[in-house]
Amino acid sequence: MPEGQIVNKIKKSKLETIDLQKFYDDTPVKELNIKDFLYQELLLKEKDYREALEIHDWSQYDGSYLAVFCSTDAIVASWAYMLVAQHAHNHADDVFFGNKEDILFELYRRKLDEFDWANYEGKFVLLKGCSDVPVPESVYLWATNKLIKAGVKKLMYGEACSNVPIYRG
């Protein structure tokens, strides 16, 4: 190597980088708080609830995921959520229980469950820390569990030039 030549040690390293933002699903997530369909936001009256669902504009969920939850302390029967799914199924790409943040983890989890973690057995792995899209802490936890179970030799978090050691197998 000629004197003064810059060597990229990161490219030469045996470090495998996983960028979790590549698992991000950019389908919009819209929320439906069913408190708005309850009497005084607390009481589920079946007839009124069914009528409110009938006149609701379900087309607003076309091309998106629907996150269904109740933000009040109302006791909501399971069938009330089932009716929402029944009305939304022709519009929303999928219907989930929970708020947007809950759904974000579930969408990542689905893709991460399909990923072949066995490819990282015995390897030095870096979970990339910076992201242009939301990657919840719960996703890093999920990926860490998957990588440890797959038998990584070493797991780090951050960037190749600056990382935090997490696990050594």
Overall pLDDT: 92
Q: For the terminal residues, how far apart are their CA atoms?
A: 35 Å
By DSSP, the count of extended strands is 7
CA radius of gyration: 22 Å
Low-pLDDT ranges: 7-12
Features:
169 residues; alpha/beta; four-stranded mixed sheet; three-stranded parallel sheet; 5 helices; elongated
Give an account of the 3D structure.
There is one protein chain. The protein is an alpha/beta fold and about 170 residues long. It has two domains: about 80 residues, no CATH class; about 60 residues, no CATH class. Helices cover about 30% and strands about 20% of the residues. The protein has five helices and seven strands. The strands form two sheets. It has a four-stranded mixed beta sheet with strand order 1-5-6-7, with helices on one face. Strands 2-3-4 form a three-stranded parallel beta sheet, sandwiched between helices. The radius of gyration is 22 Å and the shape is elongated. About 20% of the residues are buried.
Secondary-structure blueprint:
Layout: H1 9-12, E1 15-18, E2 29-33, H2 46-55, E3 65-69, H3 78-88, E4 94-97, H4 100-114, E5 124-128, H5 137-150, E6 154-159, E7 162-168
Parallel strand pairs: 1-5, 2-3, 3-4, 5-6
Antiparallel strand pairs: 6-7
Helix pairs in contact: 2-3, 4-5
